[in-house]
Every structure is written in C-alpha cells, then in structure tokens.
Amino acid sequence: MSIRRVISVIVLNEHGVLARIAGLFAGRGYNIDTLTVAPIPESKFSRLSIITSGDERVLEQIVKQLHKLIPTYKVIESGEFVEKEMALVKIPLSENFAGLDAILNAYNGSVTNTNENNIIVMVCDDTNRIENFLKAIKKFNPTDIVRGGSVLMDM
C-alpha cells in the first residue's frame, strides 16, 4: 500500500547537494512526486520540500538515507506542516468566462496576466484543492497548465 509522505529537509546551501539527494532517490528506485528548493533567508541553509510515496519500509529507508547525507542539517518528516501548491493556467480569450471569477475566488486564485490571445490565472492552495480547481477549470478549455511543487513549513 502506497502512503504519501511529506518531508522537509534543511541542508547546507552548497553546490551538488540537490544532485546528491536526487541521486539518493534515483539510485534506490524511489520516486519524488514534487520537489521544491529555496535558500532560507539570512542563513547558509536551503529548505527542500519533498513529496514522495511508498510503503512504510521504503519511507523509513528514505528518511534514514537523508539523515546520512553530509550536508543535511535536519530532516522533518512528521508533525504538522502548512503545505501549499501553485498552478498557472492559460485560457484563450475566445472562451466564455462566465463563472470564472467564482472559481478563482473559491480557490485563492486571480488573473495574473493577459495579452490579445490569452489570460493566465494563478491559484495557490492545498494540493487536493489544486486538483479540484484543475477539474473545475477544464470547462474553460485551457491550452496550458503548469503546476509548481508543494512548499512546506513546519508548525
């Protein structure tokens, strides 16, 4: 049975760290569902937000291997996280936009850009709600959809 796991990893902000972590997953046949990395302001560290899945044994092995990596400062894989994901959706201006405003309001969304052919809307919400938004927005016949990985912060 596959379990979804949210892992936040604090690492030294140095070259090659991301490659080592990706290699750890790839070398053992583990999948990364989403991966987001950014430096922690005013520090020498970066935060990796990793969403993965597997059985309990696989997930335990992932966490143990992350702890063994030299540049790893801290691995947080349990507890409460605030998790948000972003999506950008391109919709042709030729579409009927009736109801679009209500959908955007329901999912913390807004129109972020427009040109003579398209509008681009952005939403930022929980992962499950992003899934629901993408189902709802299909009625507007989007021509392109980009999802960002989850970002995490422990409580």
UniProtKB/TrEMBL annotation:
Catalytic activity: 2 pyruvate + H(+) = (2S)-2-acetolactate + CO2
Pfam family name, one: ALS_ss_C
Top-level EC class as recorded in UniProt: transferase
EC number: 2.2.1.6
Pathway: Amino-acid biosynthesis; L-valine biosynthesis; L-valine from pyruvate: step 1/4; Amino-acid biosynthesis; L-isoleucine biosynthesis; L-isoleucine from 2-oxobutanoate: step 1/4
Annotated ranges, domain ACT: 6-80
InterPro entries per the UniProt record, alphabetical: Acetalactate_synth_ssu, Acetolactate_synth/TF_NikR_C, Acetolactate_synth_ssu_C, ACT-like_dom_sf, ACT_dom, AHAS_ACT, AHAS_small-like_ACT
GO molecular function: acetolactate synthase activity; acetolactate synthase regulator activity
Alphabetized UniProt keyword annotations: Amino-acid biosynthesis, Branched-chain amino acid biosynthesis, Transferase
GO BP annotations listed: isoleucine biosynthetic process; L-valine biosynthetic process
GO cellular component, one term: cytosol
NCBIfam families: acolac_sm (TIGR00119), PRK11895.1 (NF008864)
Quaternary structure annotation from Swiss-Prot or TrEMBL: Dimer of large and small chains.
Function comment: Catalyzes the conversion of 2 pyruvate molecules into acetolactate in the first common step of the biosynthetic pathway of the branched-amino acids such as leucine, isoleucine, and valine.
Family affiliation: Belongs to the acetolactate synthase small subunit family.
Protein name according to UniProt: Acetolactate synthase small subunit
Gene name in the database record: ilvH
